[in-house]
Design a protein that fits this description.
This is DUF4292 domain-containing protein. InterPro entries: DUF4292. Keywords: Membrane, Transmembrane, Transmembrane helix. The chain has four helices and 17 strands. The protein is mainly beta and about 325 residues long. The strands form two sheets. A 15-stranded mixed beta sheet has the order 3-10-11-12-13-14-15-16-4-5-6-7-8-9-17. Strand 11 and strand 12 form a beta hairpin. It is globular. It starts with 6 loop residues before the first helix and ends with a strand.
């Protein structure tokens, strides 16, 4: 596989135009465009699923679609006159759809290893099949290695309180913590959130008093977390999370995550394909754009056998 364009860096640039106003674009590996290669795939992509955007958008009135999940039909009050008195008849309330309790199936494990392919497509980029190796210790460590051809370009290590990235191509490294990222995105980010996204579990656990609503072939649970609205769509047959819609309410920028290719793995159904679609309005030209990112696992193993997470920062590397 030959990577001609730094697609993950381009994805980072596209997203930064939405969230941070970042407009510098790099166009080749030789022009130092692998700087944020790991951030885009291993950290920023999962985090964006639940990050709060702050870009103002001009509000326009639009009638809700007929099949919209939030469409509301308003009925006018009917007033009848009889002699010198007026009787007001209140509209008959529509019956609420019954709410149901659903036992959502999740993936449980101690150690996870995966070999995967990642693809990226935007209005001016179309790249397929870059390689990423993933290792994870549940609730503790996430390790990623991204390679271009036979060469490892970036290695990253995410723990419960830190994110470390080594850029071997430019001999640089980056250090982050979740508190800093949470303040930047105005949303509480943590290790559990990233872990849930990668394995196909609901990112926010269902509360005791929450109930699902039947929507065609899904059970849907709507959750509000700050300015973020999440809609979880659980498969009617397998009770696994099959679709997640995240909307930042002031801007209406949205991110949709679809899980597919559910395959029996140990005692669980594991989604071998994840498709992420980012729809946003550019701050630069106010045009609507779409970026698509796909993760397709080639091999996944869940085991009790420990795995290694080799990681070190060479002394000569410069911190960025």
């Amino acid at each position: 596989m030959k990577v001609k364009v730094p697609f993950l860096n381009k994805l980072f640039v596209d997203v930064c135009r939405v969230f941070f106003g970042y407009s510098r674009a790099r166009t080749s590996f030789s022009n130092k465009n692998l700087r944020f290669y790991f951030i885009n795939c291993g950290v920023i992509i999962p985090i964006l699923l639940f990050s709060a955007c702050h870009r103002p958008r001009q509000k326009t009135a639009a009638a809700p679609a007929a099949d919209s999940l939030t469409a509301v039909v308003a009925k006018d009050t009917v007033t009848l006159s009889r002699k010198d008195s007026t009787a007001v008849i209140a509209p008959t309330p529509e019956p609420e759809e019954p709410k149901v309790n659903v036992n959502v199936e999740t993936v449980d494990f101690k150690y996870l290893t995966a070999r995967s392919k990642i693809s990226f497509k935007s209005k001016d980029q179309d790249i397929d099949n870059a390689n990423v190796n993933i290792r994870m210790l549940k609730d503790s460590v996430l390790w990623l290695s991204i390679v271009a051809g036979p060469i490892e370009v970036v290695r990253g290590l995410i723990t419960r309180d830190s994110i470390q990235i080594v850029d071997r191509y430019h001999k640089e490294y980056y250090l982050y913590d979740f508190n800093t990222l949470s303040q930047k995105f105005n949303f509480q980010l943590n290790f559990e959130l990233i872990q849930s996204i990668l394995i196909g579990n609901m990112p926010i656990p269902k509360k005791e008093n929450q109930r699902f609503k039947k929507e065609k072939d899904y059970f849907m649970l709507r959750q509000q977390e700050g300015k973020i609205m999440l809609e979880n769509y659980i498969g009617e047959q397998n009770h696994r999370l099959k679709k997640l819609l995240v909307t930042e309410q002031p801007t209406k920028n949205s991110l949709t995550l679809n899980y597919d290719d559910f395959t029996q793995l140990n005692n669980y159904l594991f989604p071998y394909t994840s498709l992420i679609q980012l729809d946003y309005q550019s701050q630069k030209d106010n045009q609507l754009y779409q970026t698509v990112f796909r993760i397709k696992h080639q091999k996944v193993e869940l085991s009790e056998k420990p795995v290694n997470f080799p990681f070190s920062i060479p002394q000569k590397y410069e911190r960025k």
